[in-house]
């Protein structure tokens, strides 16, 4: 017997189904408006988005289930995290990328390397084994470590262990070559350097192939730290082996831009070269070899720093390496005679000056960073000072430094370079200190029996000229825009101008009359010259406040000297001449100044 038909229930079911379809379409439209699909070009494949799953079919309501209770599908919790994401992998680095396994592996490599060094040294001291056995044993241990590195790296989780084994193996082989050269004399120095070049080059080549900076750093650091323990003293051979490491590491460092490798390769050479300079000074042996090797290592450091700066301008280690590289060669000058030492320092200054000038003369603004060329210019200035003071006697230091300061000031004005002006200020400061100590000390102005002579005339004039030229150039370049700095510099410049002109005047008078009458005439001339210059500044400063203020200050200083020093020091006719001439000049200046002010106000 068939069930009765219910047309009303069927109609309700169809209506509910249609409503469900409409709700689905409405939900799709809302999703499209909220998250519009990304536009793609025809034929472009979406790689970053997973394929969208087909929408679930709308729920259909069977006629017979109208009266049943409908349950919505469970909505996943948005804040829930899948179990896969909750689990932290065991290989995740701890701290700065160091896992326990990596820490153990590299510590084991360092301890093994130190054990090899101690074995080599102790075997030599106590006569254990034979030299051939020691060399072959070191080579065999290095080969075993390298074979283990390749085997461990191929297994699961063996990356850090393979890196540590490889770095330790190459370091053992390198130290074995050093020992064969230094301790046992099996290899000449050139042969040992060649063997070291091959071994270190193999280690750096492997790090390049594996793209592993830890291997490169481990090889270079292990060799650099342990090589001095084998050589026993900081000599030319040690500097040569460390410079060889720097040379081998350069292509890989430039290729990948590994900053840690750059620092590890450059720093040991500089330290060893400085220690070699000190050791040669103390022991007095092997001067020429040390100078030659240290000079070559410094040149290599400058070249590597330059290439690094050109190829990777963002690498700040290039500037640091450039600053450190010339230091050892500048410290070798006491090992040479004065002409050769001065020539060596001058060569360093010339090379760095060319490097600095390439930014301006060759227009390499886009190739060399500004901080790199600035550092080159600063070190060139230091080397030039050393060359100047080495080639000349102490009596000519002030004259030479002040002349160089004047030339740098003109160069700053020509190149529009504030950095050059800063160098001129440093030269002027050092030259002025030398002048106050040796050429024109203050006692020459207050004691009759002391005279500076012709050198005092020249140094005094140069001091005054440089003291005027540097602030004027600073104003032209716009670097004296801050009032406190400008006032301080101008005040200091004014004091130096007064002292320089007074010293030059006294020295000039003393050349023609080196007695008390010349001393009195010199001070009268100084006072009158200051008063005349002050009046000239006042007349020029009618419309310029700065000149008027300078004139008033100078006039006050001149009158103070007249009443405090000249009145107490001068006697007889010299005192009368000083006061009469000063008074007459002031009277004439007052009349002239009043007339100029009245004419200027009438014209205005």
From TrEMBL:
Which parts of the chain span the membrane according to its record? 103-125, 131-150, 162-183, 189-207, 214-230, 236-254, 261-282, 288-311, 318-336, 342-362, 369-389, 395-415, 420-437, 457-477, 489-512, 518-539, 546-564, 576-594
Compositional bias of kind Pro residues: 52-61
Question: Where is region (Disordered) located?
Answer: 27-94
- InterPro entries given for it? DUF2339_TM
Q: Which domain of life is it from?
A: Bacteria
Q: Which UniProt keywords apply?
A: Membrane, Transmembrane, Transmembrane helix
Protein known as: Predicted membrane protein
Species this chain originates from: Actinopolyspora xinjiangensis
């Amino acid at each position: 017997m068939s069930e009765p038909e219910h047309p009303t229930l069927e109609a309700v079911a169809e209506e509910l189904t249609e409503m469900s379809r409409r709700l689905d379409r409405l939900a799709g439209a809302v999703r499209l408006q909220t998250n519009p699909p990304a536009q793609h070009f025809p034929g472009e494949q979406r790689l970053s988005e997973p394929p969208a799953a087909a929408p679930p079919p709308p729920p259909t309501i069977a006629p017979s289930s109208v009266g049943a209770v409908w349950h919505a599908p469970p909505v996943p919790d948005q804040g829930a995290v899948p179990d896969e994401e909750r689990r932290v992998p065991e290989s995740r680095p701890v701290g700065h990328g160091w896992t326990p396994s990596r820490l153990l592996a590299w510590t084991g490599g360092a301890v093994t390397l130190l054990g090899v060094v101690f074995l080599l040294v102790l075997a030599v001291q106590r006569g254990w084994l034979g030299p051939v056995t020691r060399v072959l044993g070191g080579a065999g241990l290095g080969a075993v470590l390298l074979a283990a590195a390749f085997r461990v790296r191929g297994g699961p989780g063996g990356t850090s262990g393979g890196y540590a084994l490889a770095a330790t193996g190459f370091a053992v082989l390198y130290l074995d070559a050093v020992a064969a050269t230094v301790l046992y004399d099996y290899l000449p120095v050139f042969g040992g350097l060649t063997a070291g070049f091959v071994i270190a080059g193999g280690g750096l080549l492997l790090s390049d192939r594996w793209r592993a900076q830890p291997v490169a750093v481990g090889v270079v650091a292990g060799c650099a730290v342990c090589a001095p323990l084998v050589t026993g003293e900081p000599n030319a051979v040690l500097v040569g082996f460390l410079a060889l490491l720097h040379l081998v590491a350069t292509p890989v460092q430039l290729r990948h831009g590994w900053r840690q490798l750059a620092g590890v390769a450059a720093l040991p050479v500089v330290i060893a070269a400085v220690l070699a300079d000190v050791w040669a000074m103390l022991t007095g042996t092997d001067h020429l070899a040390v100078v030659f090797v240290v000079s070559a290592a410094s040149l290599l450091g400058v070249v590597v720093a330059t290439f690094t700066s050109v190829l990777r301008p963002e690498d700040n280690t290039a500037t640091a390496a450039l600053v450190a590289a010339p230091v050892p060669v500048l410290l070798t000058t006491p090992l040479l005679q004065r002409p050769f030492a001065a020539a060596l320092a001058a060569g360093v200054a010339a090379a760095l000056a060319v490097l600095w000038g390439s930014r301006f003369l060759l227009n390499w603004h886009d190739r060399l960073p500004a901080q790199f060329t600035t550092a080159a210019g600063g070190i060139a200035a230091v080397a030039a000072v050393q060359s100047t003071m080495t080639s000349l006697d102490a009596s000519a230091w002030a004259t030479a430094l002040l002349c160089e300061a004047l030339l740098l000031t003109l160069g700053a004005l020509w190149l529009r370079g504030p950095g050059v002006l800063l160098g001129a200020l440093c030269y002027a400061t050092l030259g002025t200190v030398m002048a106050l100590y040796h050429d024109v000390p203050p006692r020459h102005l207050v004691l009759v029996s002391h005279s500076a002579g012709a050198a005092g005339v020249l140094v005094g004039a140069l001091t005054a000229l440089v003291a005027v030229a540097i602030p004027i150039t600073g104003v032209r370049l716009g670097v004296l825009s801050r009032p406190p700095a400008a006032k301080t510099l101008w005040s200091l410049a004014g004091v130096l101008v007064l002292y320089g002109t007074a010293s030059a005047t006294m020295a000039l008078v003393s050349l023609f009359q080196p007695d008390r009458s010349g001393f009195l005439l010199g001070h009268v001339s100084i006072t009158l010259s200051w008063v005349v210059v002050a009046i000239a500044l006042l007349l020029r400063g009618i419309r310029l406040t700065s000149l008027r203020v300078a004139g008033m200050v100078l006039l006050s200083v001149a009158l103070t000297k007249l009443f405090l020093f000249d009145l107490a020091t001068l006697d007889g006719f010299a005192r009368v001449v000083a006061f009469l001439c000063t008074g007459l000049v002031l009277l004439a200046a007052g009349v002239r100044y009043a007339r100029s002010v009245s004419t200027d106000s009438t014209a205005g």
